[in-house]
Amino acid sequence: MRILNNNPPFSLVLAALLLMGPVIIKAQKSNKLKHDHFAEINAKDLRVDMDAFYIHFSGIVEEAADSIATLTHNDTVAANALFWKMNAIPAAQQAIFSANPIVALGDATVLCIQMDHFFKDGAGKEIFKDEQNIAIRASKKLRKDIIAISGQMIPEQKAQSLGDAIRFFALNNPINSLYFNRKNVKPAMAKLIEEEKFKLKNVAQNLDQNVQDLNNRIVVFSNLMPKQIRWQSEYMIYKNTPAQLQNIAFDSLIFQFDSLMLFTNSIPELIESERQEIIKTIALERELILASVQNEHKTAWENVDAQTKNAFHKISSQRDSAFLLADDLILKSTENAKETSKELIDFAFYRALIILALLFIGALILIWFYKR
Questions:
Q1: Mean pLDDT by 10 residues, the chain (372 residues)
Q2: How many CB atoms lie under 10 A from the CB of residue 88?
Q3: Among the four residues 19, 78, 215, 329, which has the most C-beta atoms within 10 Å?
């Protein structure tokens, strides 16, 4: 108190700081909120992560389902394990290959949460009997991995609200069977993206990148298609064939599908060759278009040059005609002037002769009178 009383300026500064403190803090918060108004996400990096997660998801589910089918002695449990990977992997494919990578991330996260809840606490908590923990561990790992991707790609200030909204949707729209019938999450994700003001950057892609993305999708589909056919056949055998005949049926199917896989493995090479042909065709068409444009440009300039020469020729002709006409007029005027001058001179000469004749006659008359 003594210091404040003896130093009035110091007390005034301290009081001002105390009063302005909340205002400064509020301004800082306002600037931070303004800076965080839009949450930018790198579309290219997120798409790469989601494509890699699909491969990871399908591998984890397939491995877990095969482990259950191998360990169990219950045909129903083995059939359920087969049915799980038959439906879970296409569901992940549909979710992850969405056009918008943020929607793909949200949909895949919802799927992992739904599957984890289904095997742990939901309608499928006893569907694999003694091997239930294998499915629970696989689902828990996938849920953890997709949340890790969200943590890396989603800005920290948006991660909590986005995670809560996705978790709320997943738990309120659970999976009720191994058919993986799911409510469409895209409208909810679109609304959430608008509310949270997510913004994608690095969205534009060139032709090669689009072709490469299409190539990746075709490879994924071509790799999954023979597996799905085999799994469907195995599932039908489980359901309709007695246990003692199942091994014979499986051996025949394995031989047939090995041949199909050899053909499938050659599909990426065929796609690459088609891609190269497309690029060559586009390059050739581009060269033809450029050549056509150059020809059109050259023809247009030749037409302009010809029209310009014709115009100058016409102007020159009209100018020469005008000069000739002017020369004719000048000649005619000169000739007329000469004729007129000649007539005037002749008239003056004749008048002069008449006058001289009259003077001569007058002189003679005067002489005559004078002599007389």
A1: 42 42 41 47 83 92 94 90 92 89 92 96 94 96 93 80 89 94 89 72 56 69 71 69 48 55 68 83 87 87 87 85 85 84 84 88 86 75
A2: 27
A3: 78
